Amino acid sequence: MNRFSFILIALISVYCSTEKNKQAMDQPNDSTAAEARHVLNVYTLANKNGVKMTVTNFGCKIISLWVPDRNGTLGDVVLGYDSAQQYVAGNPSFGAIIGRYGNRIGKAKFVLDGKEYLLSANNHGNSLHGGPNGFHNAYWQTEQNPATPNRLEFRYLSKDGEEGYPGNLNAKIVYTLTDDNELVIDYLATTDKTTVINLTHHSYFNLAGPANGDILNHSMMIDADRFTVVDEGLIPTGELRKVEGTPFDFRKPHRIGERIDAHDQQIEFGKGYDHNWVLNKKDKSLTLAAKVTEPTTGRVMEVLTTEPGVQFYTGNFLNGNDRGKGGKAYDFRTGFCLEAQHFPDSPNRPDFPSVILKPGEKYEQKTVYRFSTTK
Fold it and tell me: pLDDT value at position 211?
């Protein structure tokens, strides 16, 4: 081999290597994702006011969230466990990011572009929260820049066919703890095949502190004139019923426990509140959805979102079998959830706001949990 041929081969080799590396940067890094699987990590975010939270890469689950009461004393306000390891076998929803589809899809199937997709059925024949191996049970790639300790970024590649959903979905979640005592959650996703998506966050809150009594004395406001009526399996019937004159009217603040056991078929189906409220908004701007006040501590939590709905759930299936922080039991209605979302079963309800994501489009939504106090 002459010198010219040797140089030419070397140049071609370098070029191919460069192109290979460039392509690798442009594509999801499966090898890195594989290495991240089953490696459990814990991260801490903090702001200048002393507000802090701990998070694990398993399901992006929030382990603790410490916010001040009216006296400035910090207290944890989310249900969960003392260690990240306990989340692997514990309540799958505590503090988690939910996907590919939050809430329920009736009969665990839907039709998209003329093709029927069968999902994992894990809730009385329906699909709940993306199936048993949804985003809440995934190990996410995580990045935290030391220069911005109040920000944490998660990435996950949900592969085509995972839990029955079409398309390779690249998801990105960002938690930011601001100096205004806000937990900001940014959701982004893209797909290579038309799919459905409905991401949400599933922390159980008790503003008096986890396992510190029930949540019935919290005061709740939800800015919604209507809610989605459900059948006995908690699947929407398609009716958007006015809240006026019903136990679902939270347009003005009411104690959560004031009407939670009312003789109302919808209340009986949910064993309390476990419904989607149709927020009073006309666009995707960030607006106030709900406001919760806990009278003994003075803690206030506002929920702002770009989403059209919010699921208000009152821990009706907590039964004391789950032992959480400090070994205390989480009893009936000791936590509540406010899950900003699109409506349940939307893939089977074309009259509901669309949850379809196509190649070339970008899924984006933002939800803010803002904490303050009252006298």
Answer: 82
Catalytic residue among 129, 136, 202, 342: 202
DSSP state of 253: -
* 303-356 pLDDT tens trace: 999 999 999 999 999 999 999 999 999 999 999 999 999 999 999 999 999 999
263 tagged catalytic = no
Lookup result for tokens 């590396």 = 21
pLDDT digits (tens, 9 = 90+) for 126-148: 999 999 999 999 999 999 998 89
Q: Which of 306, 310, 339, 333 is nearest to 248 (CA)?
A: 310
Q: Is the separation of the CB atoms in 47 and 177 below 8 Å?
A: yes
> Amino acid letter at 26?
D
What's the sign of the alpha-carbon dihedral 309, 312, 318, 323?
Answer: positive
CA atoms within 13 A on the CB side of 365: 23
Can you spell out the DSSP letters for 86-136? HHHHS-TTTTEEE-SB-SEEGGGEEEETTEEEE----BTTBEETT-TTSGG
Q: Is residue 6 pLDDT above 80, yes or no?
A: no
What pLDDT is recorded for position 37?
Answer: 60
- Rounded CA-CA distance 328/224 in Å is 35
What is the β-pairing status of strands 200-202 and 309-313?
unpaired
Residue 16 to residues 22, 29, 71, 306, Cα–Cα distance (Å): 10, 19, 64, 45
What mean pLDDT, rounded, does the chain reach?
91
Candidate list 162, 163, 294, 339, residue with the active-site label: 339
Name the pTM for this structure.
0.90
In the DSSP assignment, the letter for residue 245 is: T
- In this structure, are residues 337 and 204 in contact, taking their beta carbons and an 8 Å threshold? yes
Look up 339 and say whether it is catalytic.
yes
By three-state DSSP, how is residue 244 classified? coil
Decide the pairing of beta strands 219-222 and 254-255.
Answer: antiparallel
